[in-house]
Amino acid sequence: MTTTLVPHPSLAIQLQEKIEYPKQGVLSKVLIKDSCCQYTLFCLAAGTDISEHTSARNATVHVIEGSGLLTLAGQEIPLEPGVFVFMPAHAPHAVKAKDNLAFLLTLSDNR
């Protein structure tokens, strides 16, 4: 499921209120999308894996709650609340949710 909120001159979103975990798998919500960035809230059910893939855009992951493991270009990075990770474009990465896991993914142009 994907939801897009139309950007306003300014917008405040309480992320905790947007978190909802599926019984299994991934629920993503595009919060804002403009010409240079996309901000997506990802909610993964405990035990969910996102297999290795790449993105043509730079990305950041900011963990809101839960725990898991990000494998980024062969390096394992524990995911827990407050962790912030920069992922350069084309870097292979995968995610495993140990517990229910929520994070904000920001995709940005890498010009």
Description:
By secondary structure, the protein is mostly beta strands. The protein has one domain: Jelly Rolls (Sandwich), CATH 2.60.120. The strands form 2 sheets. The protein has a 5-stranded antiparallel beta sheet with strand order 1-2-9-4-7. Strands 3-8-5-6 form a 4-stranded antiparallel beta sheet, with no helix packed on it.
Q: At the third CATH level, what is the topology name?
A: Jelly Rolls
Task: Please report the number of helical segments.
Answer: 1
Mean pLDDT comes to 92
What class do helices, strands and sheet pairing give? mainly beta
Shape assignment: globular
What is the straight-line distance between the termini? 29 Å
State the strand order across the main sheet: 1-2-9-4-7
Domain tally = 1
> In sequence order, what are the helices and strands, one letter per element?
HEEEEEEEEE
Question: What is the count of β-strands?
Answer: 9
CATH architectural arrangement:
Sandwich
So what's the CATH class?
Mainly Beta
Helix content: under 10%
What percentage of the residues does DSSP assign to strands (E)? over 45%
Name the poorly predicted regions: none
Under CATH, the homologous superfamily reads Jelly Rolls
Task: Draw up the topology in text.
Layout: H1 15-18, E1 26-33, E2 37-44, E3 49-53, E4 58-65, E5 68-72, E6 75-79, E7 84-87, E8 93-97, E9 101-108
Antiparallel strand pairs: 1-2, 2-9, 3-8, 4-7, 4-9, 5-6, 5-8
